[in-house]
Amino acid sequence: MQEGGQGNKSGADTRNGDSIMRDEFAERDLAHIRNVLCHLEHSADSLRAIEKGMMVNLNYWRGRVRGILAIPLLSMQVQQQANDLLGRLDRLERTGH
């Protein structure tokens, strides 16, 4: 079976409905977090905001990503997206010190 549960020749998703909904929820939440990080990474004020205590906010977003990773039976694709966002959060945090 291929990653993401799409293992039959027709390309139809062979996962059950709960698994699909779980991944869709996680992907929507990760997309939102990704947009927030893009704004922080490209904002002229982001470095100054980090220096003035935005670490709490970064910890909030990190907690949201970890919460997604705690969802059972996530696809490898969603897990990778979440881990990539954790790496971006770490880099953003390092630029603030």
Topology overview:
Layout: H1 17-42, H2 46-69, H3 76-95
Task: Tell me what the structure shows.
The protein has one domain (16-95). The protein is 72% helix and 0% strand. It contains three helices and no strands. The chain has helices at residues 17-42, 46-69, 76-95. The longest helix is centred in the first third of the chain and has 26 residues, at 17-42.
State the secondary-structure class. mainly alpha
Radius of gyration: 16 Å
Instruction: List low-confidence stretches.
Output: 1-11
Main sheet overview: none
Number of E-type strands: 0
Task: Quote the average pLDDT.
Answer: 80
Q: How would you spell out the order of helices and strands?
A: HHH
- Note the overall shape: elongated
Domain count: the total is 1
Q: Report strand %.
A: under 5%
Fraction of residues in helix: over 70%
Total helices: the number is: 3
For the termini, the CA-CA separation is: 44 Å
Question: How is this structure best summarized?
Answer:
With 97 residues, this protein is mostly helical. The protein has helices spanning 17-42, 46-69, 76-95.
